[in-house]
């Protein structure tokens, strides 16, 4: 680490050029599909041109082996969406709209009838004919439902297209804010975004008229199976088969200054500083600008992070077992909350906490010190990398208000650029690369994984008792409780082994680091070669854990299999109790939280079934990183509709003196679901027992 008394850390920090990174982030804005709004979507000409510029820039700053890795995604070009109408005083009013990843081409201005359909739910369409018309709806995608549900509902009713105004949740910074998100639906159900300011004029007319005439000029095209490119460059290391990966995505909505221009530019800025410092790494440093993160596959619940998924599963699957860490970057040039956070997979938490504890003084950008949080989430490319078997982390970007206010709107610009925060992220991750470079064996600590399994089992036991409302589970409950106890005992053994192994890993790395700093390079290399089998064992274990334990729920939350199952069991058992107590509203609130049954409350069965079935009945190449990660689905559509009907009956009978409703049919159905879930949980616990035994060699 020392060079003539000047530490490499200091040299790297001195060579960080934050104005360079900022300028590169701004330069990316020149490539746009829409002339005023921007957009660099998957497979577009703008995305391609940005990738070409980044490739040239990699070569310019000194990276070697610069390549364009071709990957196949679904592509989208959005060129325009202009709407105009005549207001109440005869003036022509024009509005510029945003769009979602669907196909809708008017071939010039075209007149449409427009109707207002509230929130776009099933009941909003009663008595309304929307065939070949534009449908205007108000939605809150954060707190109510995702855009694909009201869009597909409109499509089934024959609407020409849906135009959504955000009523909170996103784009809250300004009434002129447009919004863009992944559509998670089919390309032939068109959707656009309108600002609250522009929608207000339309809504004023539609208060007095059921329909109005507007002129719409739109060009939005989705093309399946396009080729796009992930741009890769390297700083060669002494060990070419041991790599540290830096990743960030260069596709964007609007100008994408924070999301994700500054992240790409940060990656380049760090690489440039390392190169300019004369850094000769032990590990090969790989810089990867990812395409198609925001969206990249039609009609899939897992339609984002497509470029990263294809990079690690198709373009370079051989990276698994060679990449010891993926440092992913998202929105790094503004403050998210009161402290910087590294969001990491569980296995890297111990090493990162030790790394943070030994850091020199860095730029003060937050009132509180940097911390580590876990696990990683599905919202960025690091998840695709992790489930493939690459231990991953990302600068956490979910704290603070930016996601509700500016995110995925035209207000994601440099007005909220924070140079101090940006500098801190450069420093934090540049030094992390140096720290990783002084490890001889990947510093993975598996104890947190076992601890999470153990905690989930405690919840399973409690819920099993609570769900057995009438003692109907019988022998099933006894067997399940026995299996839970067996896995708890096994987990305790695994936990002890994990702690012992990590102590050995730490010792190896301390010795290796000291040998390097003492200039005993031959001895360091001998030690490095000696423990290659240990590293391969640890990386293989990491991959096994991802396959065995990492699951997601219907809202993209990362959970373990027994957690999802037991949560449903808790909710269903609680709903049964509520119905027996004649507490219908409480029962409905619980059923609303089971899997994706929230949508049973508001949409046609065909809508509900489409977005359920497409998770289970599509091939792996359409489901990407979500393939096989959602557990069994509890279909409560019929039960929910029956209960909602009885809720209406109760409302109509208010004041009649009627206090009780017959819920026996629904109770029987839910008790059957509980019994089935106990069997599922039993099988899950049994499978997890086998996995723990195999993974931790017990």
| CATH topology term of the largest domain | Aminopeptidase
Largest sheet: 15 strands, mixed
Radius of gyration over all CA atoms, rounded: 27 Å
Mean pLDDT: 94
Provide a count of the helices: 21
Q: What is the straight-line distance between the termini? A: 39 Å
Helical coverage, percent range: 40-55%
Give a nutshell description of this structure.
The chain has helices at 8-15, 18-27, 45-60, 148-156, 196-208, 257-276, 306-315, 349-357, 381-388, 402-405, 419-437, 447-467, 475-517, 521-530, 532-549, 561-580, 584-591, 605-616, 620-623, 637-652, 664-695, and strands at residues 2-3, 6-7, 64-86, 92-96, 98-99, 104-105, 110-116, 134-139, 161-166, 191-194, 211-235, 239-249, 283-290, 323-328, 341-344, 371-373, 392-395, 551-552, 558-559. By secondary structure, the protein is an alpha/beta fold.
Protein architecture, described:
The protein is 44% helix and 18% strand. It has three domains: 2-72 and 243-437, Aminopeptidase (3-Layer(aba) Sandwich), CATH 3.40.630.10; 78-223, Glucose Oxidase, domain 1; 447-695, no CATH class. It is α/β, with parallel strands linked by helices and 698 residues long. It has 21 helices and 19 strands. Strand 1 (2-3) and strand 2 form a beta hairpin. The protein has helices at 8-15, 18-27, 45-60, 148-156, 196-208, 257-276, 306-315, 349-357, 381-388, 402-405, 419-437, 447-467, 475-517, 521-530, 532-549, 561-580, 584-591, 605-616, 620-623, 637-652, 664-695; strands at residues 2-3, 6-7, 64-86, 92-96, 98-99, 104-105, 110-116, 134-139, 161-166, 191-194, 211-235, 239-249, 283-290, 323-328, 341-344, 371-373, 392-395, 551-552, 558-559. It has a 15-stranded mixed β-sheet that branches. The protein has a two-stranded antiparallel ribbon with strand order 1-2. A two-stranded antiparallel ribbon has the order 18-19.
